[in-house]
Give the backbone structure.
Amino acid sequence: MNILVLNCGSSSIKAEIIEAETGQRLNGLKAERLGEAPIITFDSGGDQISCNTKGHEEVLKIALDLLQQRLKGTPIHGVGHRVVHGGEDFDQAVKIDASVEQKIEDLIDLAPLHNPINLQGIRIAKELFKDVPHVAVFDTAFHHTLPKRAKTYAIPVDLAEKHQVRRYGFHGTSHDYVSKMAAEFLQSELRELRLITCHLGNGCSLAAVEYGRSIETSMGMTPLEGLVMGTRSGDIDPGILIYLKEKENLSINDIDHLLNKQSGLKGLAGVNDMRDIIQKSTEGDDGSRLALQVFTHRVRKYIGAYAAVMGGVDAIIFTGGIGENSPVVRHRVAQRLDFLGAVINEDKNHDIRLSHEQKVVDFSMNHSRVKLLAIKTDEQYSIAQQAANLIQEKNKVNTVPPIPIAVSGRHMHITQETLEQLFGKGYELTVKKPLSQPGQFAANEQVTVVGPKNKIERVRILGPCRPKNQIEISRTDEFFLGIDVPVRESGKTTNTPGCKVIGPKGTVDLEEGVICAWRHIHMTPDDAAIFGVKDRDIVEVEVSEGDRALTFGNVLIRVSPKYKLEMHIDTDEGNAAELSRGATGALNATGGAAKLKKRRIS
Ligand code: AMP
């Protein structure tokens, strides 16, 4: 599937046609010096065309027109657009319709330099490529998994909420892509790895990718926070701005320009290209030496912080123009990370030459517990893949509905025989209220469950009667009763402990049947097809709402046409996540890909 990937920035436009399965580049162009004297350079042949017009919109139209002419019959099956800010709304790539366009427009306040140009690109490309689907891939989406503690700024909550002030993170497509590449290279599952990804280019950011999810990243509400960059300051004491505003009588625009355009490497060394800075520092230029020191010091500082946040790290990845190409920077960052278990191999570091053929190089010593990897990022290819996946609707897991969660209190399933022993001959259960699973009900009848230490009264019976007795209790109940019970799937009561049960007309000593229920999701075969799971798969379910958001691992899938979609957990589990009525969970996908975090049991 051929995808046109369009990346419209403030000073340049990149358009590439990529075969999404193989990553093969079919054609492309770059329009640079927008706003001055725009030049369009074609990838194939490298020929250049100067534009007579300065306007962004006109240049984009000309560039796409020229590209279309050169396609010479090569079909385009879809267009993938890089969009910088997806705000709270977009946690994954989406097909673009009128409502998506509107949301991107609504987010202009959060990304005034980028979203308008991205949107313009979308609108022009939609006119030129009318008959194919267009997909938006957001820089922020990968960081949607940041926990609240990482994305919250310590300013008054009301103010932050009113203006959506929080950390969003950027470069998500690159962090996502290199994480996956690292997992593949290390022959590991993303869900088993703690990675620190260092995207060091003209813009720079780090991410802590814990078991496939971004849980920290150095850019914040805007791409200005964090590392020292080409022309951006990165972290700075906000008090400095107040101070300088007074001292230099600066306007907001002046401050914006100062921090975004005149700071970073440029502010320290007078130039923003790391190649020049390295060259000048070897020639003894003090400003360049300082720039290099401040730059690498900050990267190392963040690596230490992220290792602490994740409680360890398995691999540290260097990518972006600087991370991929500069042995000097990699050396300065990695040379003193031995305490983390990352030991650099200087020879390998020096010899790295990344290419499309060799995208990943390990430059750590063989005994290094933490791997140091240089990886060639490929945001364009990643955008092409995500667009193709959506267009082919491979990625169904990303569009699945939320799963309603029901918290079950302790209860008993009972046989007709035991019911009669406890309630009298010929007794039948009476319905108190129907339960969500078709045909099931909470009965009016209750029993007392007695363990070696304590007893629990008013344990409700659920009907209808079953072929086996089963009492489901929580871990807290277990300690209270003094019974050591296993976590079991419903119905699997062989070799489980029993207990005494008291009813109004009798007592029964159950030999077995007390379990702590294995958390599970009931679903129909249709639901299973939508979620891409099978009966008895094991998945993760994430509950992201509330202060005690958590991810439930080891959740059993149970499929039957008789079921209704619902996850069942016990009261301890519900309390742990502080779930309230109407709570829902999401099946976890690793790394934003279609692959479910699941395994099968026999
Ligand atoms: P990017 O934004 O990822 O394209 O990265 C661009 C930056 O990578 C440039 O501004 C350079 O500073 C840097 N860069 C590219 N090649 C090298 C190199 N060989 N050594 C040091 N820095 C480099």
About this structure: The CA atoms of residues 42 and 207 lie 33 Å apart. The radius of gyration is 29 Å. The chain has a mean pLDDT of 91. The domain at 172-384 is CATH 3.30.420.40 (Nucleotidyltransferase; domain 5).
